[in-house]
Amino acid sequence: MSRSKCLIIALLMIAATAAILLAMGRIPICDCGYVLLWTPAGDVAGSSQHVADWYTPSHIIHGFLFYLFLWLILPRASVCERALGAIFIEAAWEIVENSPWIIDRYREATIAIGYTGDSVLNSVFDIFWMLAGFFFAWRMPVWVTVLVGIVFELLALWVIRDNLTLNVLMLLYPVEAIKVWQSG
Fold it and tell me: What pLDDT, on the 0 to 100 scale, is given for residue 143?
């Protein structure tokens, strides 16, 4: 598949994701009416509403993991075809993550009591952040990718008391002691 064809398909997939999220009633941008490149840790209301926040490293790590997964299951596919697979997985997650069921689960099982879901802008950028991680994993030695993933997890844990590992754990098997610790 040519790079231009791959790029067009990728952009169409991302646009379709945005359209689905809008049809689900997701807000296009933050209710605040403006767009920030970075939302600091203390801005709980703005988290998941702008271009990047402390959950962005989790989406970059998704890219690392999707690269590995697709490299293992599609060894003959081009990096472009694998990237399209990664976009599909991340886009599916963004749609599921913004369903009432998952939003309610976050509120119930995690410290995200006031979580209302992502803005469409944030979800689209989450896909781009995942792609950044995917292409980083493609170009870097495995040890560098693993080290960066560990640093991202530890940094997010230190700053916001949450990261991809805890997020998955608390969604699947909430641990009250972790929830209490995360609450500060």
Answer: 98
pLDDT tens per residue across span 2-22: 899 999 999 999 999 999 999
- What's the pTM value of the predicted model, to 2 decimals? 0.93
The predicted pLDDT at position 42 comes to 61
Q: What is the 3-state secondary structure (H, E, C) of the chain?
A: CCHHHHHHHHHHHHHHHHHHHHHCCCCCCCCCCCCCCCCCCCCCCCCCCCCCCCCHHHHHHHHHHHHHHHHHHCCCCCHHHHHHHHHHHHHHHHHHHCCHHHHHHHHHHCCCCCCCCCCHHHHHHHHHHHHHHHHHHHHCCHHHHHHHHHHHHHHHHHHHCCCHHHHHHHHHCCCHHHHHHHCC
Task: Say which residue the tokens 């998704």 belong to.
Answer: 62
pLDDT band at 152 (very low <50, low <70, confident <90, very high): very high
Total structural domains within the chain? 1
Largest CA-CA distance found in the chain, in angstroms, rounded: 51
Rg (the chain; Cα; Å): 16
